[in-house]
Design brief:
Layout: E1 3-8, H1 11-14, H2 17-28, E2 32-37, H3 45-55, H4 58-61, E3 65-68, H5 69-72, E4 96-99, E5 108-114, E6 117-124, E7 130-137, E8 140-148, E9 151-159, E10 162-169, E11 175-192, E12 206-207, E13 213-228, E14 234-235, H6 238-249, E15 254-258, H7 263-266, E16 275-277
Parallel strand pairs: 1-2, 1-15, 2-3, 15-16
Antiparallel strand pairs: 4-5, 5-6, 6-7, 7-8, 8-9, 9-10, 10-11, 11-13, 12-13, 13-14
Length: about 280
């Protein structure tokens, strides 16, 4: 293996001890490591970079290649963002309050006030370049613009405070990929022997005829549909979209490392790819 690609879909994955251990082990074996930040919540990219910087020494960071979905799609063809979906910064003429960063690990925050309430908020890096601009309505976020090196690469829209859609832009500010969030109820059952020490204190257990202990519950989970504006392809799963990108970036001499939580969803789309978990 000449190159290892770590496909990261969440901040929780970066915080796993196995992530840090495997990256260090590969670098010790002189393997070139590329970490691809593939979170749909584009505002997590900056947090992710700080997490990575905190886990590795400076000499190790110089060996790591860290890229994001925005980097991968920077030169992809797109379409102009519709006027009603563009992020408007007219709030910047309003009265504001500035909260400077206490150190270089934090961000400066500027809050804009209208009618006695916060109507928008901007976070900046040490050079006062914007990282994230967010508009609020009734104390809930309604839209955000995400930046890297002061240049906008994403737009996030919210419904009732939850992410509804995320628009990925290319280097020219054109829309290249749309992520649409849906939710669905999911039911699950855990069946264990009576001697099992595992217990779910927040759930009421049942017992079947075989004297197994059963826990049942349900929850609402998110899933994403993806629209590509390069060829107007439509992916009914974000993992299908991920696989289409990985087929382009993961060469024959590359080892692919994915979060164990993504394994059941992603691996069926990459039957020929050698995949490792972290």
């Amino acid at each position: 293996m000449k190159q290892a690609i770590f496909w990261v879909t969440s901040l929780a994955g970066l915080r796993k001890l196995t992530f840090k251990q495997k990256v260090k082990s590969l670098m010790n074996d002189q393997v070139q490591v590329t970490i691809i930040l593939a979170m749909i919540r584009f505002n997590h990219y900056e947090v992710a970079r700080h997490l990575i910087e905190a886990q590795f020494q400076r000499s190790q960071l110089l060996q790591l290649n860290i890229v994001s979905l925005a980097d991968l799609m920077a030169d992809a063809p797109g379409i102009e963002v519709a006027s009603e979906e563009q992020f408007k910064t007219d709030f910047e003429a309003l009265p504001s309050h500035r909260f400077d960063a206490a150190d270089d690990t934090q961000q400066t925050i500027v809050r804009y006030i209208k009618g006695g309430e916060i109507t928008a908020e901007v976070s900046e890096d040490l050079n006062q370049n914007p990282l994230l601009k967010t508009r609020f309505n009734n104390h809930q976020p309604v839209q955000s613009a995400v930046y890297a090196a002061g240049k906008q690469f994403g737009i996030i829209s919210y419904q009732e405070g939850e992410l509804a859609q995320a628009l990925l832009l290319n280097r020219q500010g054109q829309l290249v990929t749309r992520f649409i969030r849906y939710t669905k109820p999911v039911s699950y059952v855990y069946t264990m022997g009576r001697t099992s020490k595992l217990a779910f204190t927040e759930l009421v257990s049942e017992t079947d005829k075989g004297q197994h202990v059963i826990y049942q519950d349900s929850e609402v989970r998110s899933y994403y549909e993806v629209v590509s504006y390069q060829d107007y392809d439509r992916f009914d799963s974000v993992y299908s979209f991920y696989a289409s990108l990985l087929e382009k970036v993961a060469g024959a001499d590359s080892g692919l490392f994915i979060d164990l939580n993504d394994n059941p969803e992603l691996t069926p789309y990459l039957p020929q790819q050698l995949i490792f978990n972290y």
